[in-house]
Here is the input.
Amino acid sequence: MAGHEHSHDDHAHDHTNSRGHAHGGHAHGPGGHGGHSHGVAADADRRWLLSALALIVVFMAGEVAVGFAAQSLALISDAAHMLTDAASIVLALIAMRLAARPARGGYTYGLKRAEILSAQANGVTLLVLSAWLGYEAVTRLITPPEVAGSLVLVTALVGIVVNLAATWCMSKANRSSLNVEGAFQHVLTDLYAFIATAIAGLVVLTTGFARADAIASLIVVALMLKAGIALVRDSGRIFLEAAPAGIDPDTVADRMVTEPLVEEIHDLHIWEITSNQPALSAHILVTPGGDCHAVRRQLQRRLADEYGITHSTLQVDHVGEDEAGALLQITAPDDTADDDTAAEHCAEAHGPVHRAGPHEH
Here is the structure.
């Protein structure tokens, strides 16, 4: 393999992806596949994330000291949550750097899913932290300690200002990335936590009701659970290569099969490479004598226009062009079928087979 060189400037790409389908005529321009962009302004995002990180780290250090002095679980839980905020932003920054690396070697998609790993880690930390804080809050509801309401109130009010600034910085980054959204949800939940803590501090200061501190913590726990579950669910869908939310593969196939000259569609797969980068592959059978390339181009246009799927990999064949006489299509098992003429192209249907007219999915 010595001296093996890749030239990407003087030849057309004829890709075959890991699913065995060819990128028929899929043009690559400066902006990505088919002239569309898979990236965001990473440098701008990093600046906003770093600004939010600096605000959070400086305030967190002071909040830990005040929380222990005031014996406030709400403040300590806020500080612990801010620690995960900082960690989530650091993870997001690392993931953005990894995802920006070009695809090469065995990583044919590059390291784009590093962002999804970061988002899932953020979701898991929210769930773990919510379990710990929930336990502590219930314990303090049973046996409430003395809480310095004035310290809690002042610190929480300052925390609201700091988190508002951090949330504003994070909102300037591209939240369509699940990675950035994960870090943003951490900071946003912390903002809600400080609001609840400020109310608890005011209640303790004015009424002496110490359990308000634990109640505020439980409210924060509920918010953390909600955000954590959403992040784990959304990142899990991408890792399991489920269809993107809002795109039903059966509906997509049913619309594709109505295209003139299309006889059958099978081996249809729709998944996300990373946040907002849907991809599709399918095997298309065309009427004998039909223009395969015209059908492919029209299907790719429809996928891009109707579903925003610009990374489509379509293998197109004519029905019945197998020299052995077997149709290049998948049919239901038939005990009377001649084994010698069984189609070998697809030994097993990976999902429903779609043809014109009513059919089961």
User: Anything to note?
Assistant: The beta strands are 28-29, 32-33, 262-272, 278-286, 311-318, 354-355. The first helix runs from residue 42 to 70.
